[in-house]
Amino acid sequence: MKHLLSINDLSESEAIAILDTAAELARVSDAPMKKLPTLRGRTIVNLFAEDSTRTRISFEAAAKRLSADVINFSAKGSSVSKGESLKDTAQTLQAMGADAVIIRHQASGAAHRLATSKWMSGTVINAGDGTHEHPSQALLDAYTLRKHLMQGAKNLQGLHVAIVGDILHSRVARSNVLLLSKLGATVSVVAPPTLLPVGIESWDAHVSYDFDELIPNTDAIMMLRVQSERMNELYFPNAREYSRYFGLNSDRVKRMKKDSIIMHPGPMNRGLEITADVADSARSVIVEQVSNGVSVRMAILYTLLTGEGIESGALA
Amino acid sequence: MSKNYFITGAKLSDGSVKDIFISDGKIAGFKNPTDSKAVLVDATGKIILPGLVDLHTHLREPGKEDSETVLSASRAGAKGGFTALSAMPNTSPVADTAGVVEQVLRLGIEAGLCDVYPIGAVTKNLDGNELSEIGAMADSAAQVRIFSDDGHCVSNPQVMRRALEYVKKFNGVIAQHAQDPDLTIDAQMNEGIVSSVLGLKGWPAVAEEAIIARDVLLADHVQSRLHICHVTTAGGVEIIRWAKARGINVTAEVTPHHLLLTDDMATSYDPVFKVNPPLRTEKDVHALREALAEGVIDIVATDHAPHPAENKECEWQLAAFGMLGLETALSIITLTMVETGLLDWNGVAERISRTPARIGGYTGQGTDFLVGQMANLTVIDPRASWRVDRDLVASRSRNTPFHGMELPGVITETFYRGVPTLLQAQLLTEKNS
């Protein structure tokens, strides 16, 4: 495995190996000296053509904890925003000796283009491409689910996870449906019909328009951000109506299963898809998702750049 | 004084074997007269067709000469067996005046490798609101009969109605690019299973079908002539079938790429497969093939759309729509229609020569092999195959979606007005494109 462009690049055992490696690397994050020498001398570029503070700093922290040299190449103030082509940018990064490029881009397939076009030879990691995929987010979500709900099991067999919100435009949803189902979970996607893609019948997921019906049967509810620009594109009448049918509030939380958890990839629109009290409640693992993100991204970099994972217990 | 040619042993599209003597630009007989000094062309075992006629070509000149010129497109056409091309008006400036269509006509004559028939814009600057100088273009030296805003849909129904009515004056035809703009804002590929997985904005079939349905009704109402460009959906085929059964004066075309490729190609995110209208599904491909065999779809037209490398070597969303088509069209038809048994060679001649010539009113094109007819013809060796190589195309651009494919049918000769433009599969054009 050279690149991570889509969850489809991973077999079930490869995905589990990344989660196991992440669990080992989490020990590094918990130690006073948060660093391993593994990627010393390697250059990793964060190529962020689209704003994303949290994913960028998560990858940056992960790379630095593995002792890699990190270069941040963000859209603002870089040649990407001056209209330089992706090809020229890739060739420039290649000439500078980048071993890996972590790319966030507004165009679906941009990471794929970078990896398959022969413009550069390094490893490409997709940190979110348009409305296509966000595989590292799905891996950190699977990690979080496994840690909370699986009592030591390796996969997610038997779990029921509901993904709620703007499925149509969500790369988080696409990667999670692929990964969670690959790991044995049952996945339901919940949204108004306007925010589900035509063709969703091919996905390995149950489709529902009725959030309330699903709530008592789910082990985890993953809320998706609703982009403000959707309001003007006739996907739903207004924010209030959206919240009424698809927002997670304390009344709905009361009907959740015992021990079930609430997730959100962030950034949240408090008051729209999730109320503030729910976001901050005991069931919410939203902040923990962020810290798990660093361990999982360390595991992704470790696996792709060294060609191997870390056995469970090896760093104990 | 031009040379004489004697083509021997080729099978005509009706299955008969005939030798053809060409003299003075015309078919002069079926025997080689003594002392003719004719150049002999051995076409034994090959098929001879009336020269191919394309009703839908983007020659890019004037204004976009970095991607193609009238001359380079004419060379690509000659290589693909074409003796007539139809220049779509979305050039810069747009072909919406007599001046521009006459310029394109003149460039075609100067290139001298095939007839280049300009198509006029329906609306000024393709803006969809105001009729262009349709009458002046019809009366010009170019004698334009086909009008199209191709690349854009004439989406305003009142504008479409007026255009259909207006061209009745000179038996013109409106060639509609059927695409509801409101249903296809930022659309990138066919809306369906593949787009749902790839996260590329969907282009629903209904955006095409709704316009086809509206326009056949308009053509019926004003009793005018409508041509539907590049039909891509099974649903569109059904509407055209219904319209024809009702006696509505509608013709339709399909492109070679829509007869072969599907939206699965987008999985590569390689924009060489990005095209307007988009590649559809396997089911649509089969419906299009059946419709072409049946005659519900009348013709194949290439929608040859060259683009410079930088407009394809980028992210899918930033890339230009369109693919090359002239040099591969007949091979794709051979693969999808002849080898499948859906069309015989007479059917091929009908769909890509005689009928397009009739729709366009192109005299001297798509004619039978009779003494005195203009010698526009194409010789294809159906037993041979070739590998498409984007670095070896005659076009100025390289955006062929068929790169690397092994295709049946090698075109060995093209004669335009009695002069070979392609001989033994080699272009005979002195001029550089």
Which features does this protein show?
heterodimer; A: 316 residues; alpha/beta; five-stranded parallel beta sheet; four-stranded parallel beta sheet; B: 433 residues; nine-stranded mixed beta sheet
Which shape of chain A, going by the Cα principal axes? globular
Distance between the termini of chain A: 26 Å
Biggest chain-to-chain interface with counts: A-B, 26 and 23 residues
Number of strands of chain B: 19
- Main sheet overview of chain B: 9 strands, mixed
Oligomerization: heterodimer
The order of strands across the largest sheet of chain A is 7-6-5-8-9
Average of per-residue pLDDT values of chain A: 93
* Total of helices of chain B: 10
The backbone outline of chain B, from C-alpha atoms, is globular
Run of helices and strands of chain B? EEEEEEHEHEHEHEEHEHEHEHEHHEEEE
Helix and strand content put the structural class of chain B at: alpha/beta
- Strand content bin of chain B: 15-25%
Beta fraction of the residues of chain A?
5-15%
Q: How many β strands of chain A by DSSP?
A: 9
